From TrEMBL, chains A, B:
It comes from Sinisalibacter lacisalsi. This is LacI family transcriptional regulator. The keyword S-adenosyl-L-methionine does not apply. Pfam families: LacI, Peripla_BP_1. Keywords: DNA-binding, Transcription, Transcription regulation.
Length: 360, 360
DNA sequence: TTGAAAGCGCTAACAC
DNA sequence: GTGTTAGCGCTTTCAA
């Protein structure tokens, strides 16, 4: 055994404070603070002295104290339902990218699509007095809405524009997205349409897409022939299973609309394996436009949900944030940004109606 | 236009404080504080009064002030390189699940595999004085290591055990993982082995797997026949492209080892499309054991990287955290948990050597 | 069971 | 350019 002798001082029991740096450098706490924050005029000489001392001691400022004193917290609360599908990570990346050019920092909370979790997470985050909140969706518990309204900071609700925002909102209309896809499918000549989705009554965006979808079908005198829902497990595997099941049960189906790309991709794999003629005998479409699927031999028709753009815009609104966010009692001052989702036909959705099984 | 009359008071300009609740309830700040934190004995009567007042006002406590006063912050810094691949979200979920049963809350920072980002993110997080740090990998800049050592809180380095931890470590040996896979492949009778990976010199775990892999091959008198690396883009698509490319360049290859499941899956798709006999003519294996791939028609051979288990264990260590984490100058008091990755053969790796092209 | 006083580590505002 | 003073909103500690 060798006796280890430290050349650096041992780990301190008491965290270092400004005072320590002050004493080590022979400069007042205030000036040290100024140097460390690059605020106010400090002579180059003392600046160097202070920096050296801080680095030497390994001083890490205490933001808790700083925040309390300055009444400023450079944190942005980002509240999303899930991390496990590919959609929110994409939004997060965009948010981070924008905030990287500001003093702001995102802090992520996950709700698992549970309103009570959302309420709790929101409460926790608000208790840190963040500079803004980015939160997915427009549906929140009354308590959550009350908290958001009275927080006195910019709030941006993202992903969805179908509803009444508290402050600002950035997203797409999922109802419209569902409608657009239905219209495209009908125009392509498909008539026996099935739907596959998630068993998530609380996924309001999926619900709205479905509503828009059936609404547009109804306008064309059609309705969904059959449907199936899943919960849990590998989305790809579930998509495969559900597709097999629904096609067996309702063999007349000539199109399947999936509530997300992942189960759509599973369905596509099933069709390829089963030798089903796609998009001739059966058309397929998903939702989200996730890049993941670029590696498949066939491109699933889908709709870009503008995830990156949404994240970017939301972060920008927060970053601007100077403006008053919610006025007292009057109309909301928030901004409204509705993005346009675009259909990507891929090759699982035939383009010309003339090729359809049901020529018009 | 209708004149909106508020039944609830308008959003306050000044955030509410304990004092407000104190005044509204006619109870001292101290007692209000006790009620809100469920600390100490408070009569049921005052308790109800206080709770009612707090709820009525919509009071949200200020954790900044609370943390400063109590010198306690129930935050756990979790620092990971990326959110975009499926591996870290899985770890995060496990961490959250464990911490949900404690007062602790994870706060995530992403480094993009950049040491300088890591250093910055770490500094930011430490300045909030968290109760612990969970950080991916054992390789950090000297400055980062110094910060971790002197933070005076439990540190858990995760994912990898090949190296010297600062405090605790939970992970698998990636070198060993690479070795195990090589041995399995060789035992199965494959001899002309190619490698496909990421262009990430800073992904130390991928590097260690590769080193272990080649080391074990060398022991069997073999070396990697050809290799290819990618950066950016859809991993699935890249896997497909790289596989086509390497097989064209080195047609003698009878096995491809991928540094992750995603590119492996892309490779598998290529093989299926190209009509290549897998695992007869060509074997394939990936790494991570991601569930995503369960929906494929063939199961890619892979190795479980114990992501969930790692997250769980790490969180547990932090939660126990009471123990002194780094002793002064002496040996680290941290715990060491090395998990055993297991090979999942799937069906892209033939099992019996006797079936090999090169019978032994 | 409740309250009063002191102070956590920093920064705003003002002096010098 | 630098230092001094007074809090930020809570919790700790101690007294009642």
């Amino acid at each position: 055994m060798t006796a280890v002798t430290d050349d650096k001082p041992a780990a301190p029991k008491r965290p270092l404070t400004l005072r320590d740096v002050s004493e080590a450098s022979g400069v007042s706490e205030m000036t040290v603070s100024r140097v460390l924050r690059n605020r106010g005029d400090v002579s180059e000489a003392t600046r160097t002295r202070v920096l050296a001392a801080a680095k030497d001691l390994g001083y890490v400022p205490n933001k808790i104290a700083g925040a309390l004193a300055s009444q400023r917290v450079n944190l942005v609360a980002v509240i999303i339902p899930s991390l496990s599908n590919m959609v929110f990570p994409r939004v997060l990346t965009a948010i981070s990218d924008v905030l990287d050019n500001t003093p702001l920092q995102p802090v992520v909370g996950v709700t698992n699509y549970l309103p009570e979790r959302e309420e709790k997470v929101l409460y926790e985050m608000l208790s840190w007095r963040p500079s803004g909140v980015i939160i997915a969706g427009l549906e929140h518990s009354e308590a959550a809405k009350a908290m958001l309204r009275s927080a006195g900071i910019p709030i941006v609700e993202i992903m969805d524009t179908d509803g009444t925002p508290i402050d600002s909102v950035v997203g797409i209309s999922h109802r419209r997205a569902g409608r657009m896809m239905a219209e495209t499918i009908v125009k392509a000549g498909y008539r026996k349409i099935g739907f596959l989705g998630t068993k998530m009554p609380l996924d309001h965006r999926a619900r709205k897409r479905f509503e828009g979808f059936t609404e547009a079908l109804a306008k064309a005198g059609l309705e969904v022939v059959d449907q199936e829902f899943y919960a849990g497990g590998s989305a790809l595997a579930k998509g495969r299973e559900m597709t097999a099941a629904i096609l067996e049960r309702s063999p007349e189906i000539d199109f399947l609309y999936y509530s997300n790309d992942m189960i759509g991709a599973g369905g596509l794999l099933h069709c390829l394996d089963a030798g089903i003629d796609v998009p001739g005998r059966l058309g397929l479409a998903g939702f989200n436009g996730i890049e993941l699927l670029d590696g498949f031999s066939m491109q699933l028709a889908t709709m870009d949900s503008c995830r990156a753009e949404i994240g970017r815009k939301a972060a920008e609104i927060i970053a601007q944030g100077a403006e008053v966010s919610v006025s007292d009692g009057g109309p909301t001052r928030g901004r409204r940004v509705e993005l346009n989702p675009t259909i990507r036909h891929g090759n699982t959705l035939r383009l010309r109606p003339s090729e359809g099984l049901y020529p018009e």
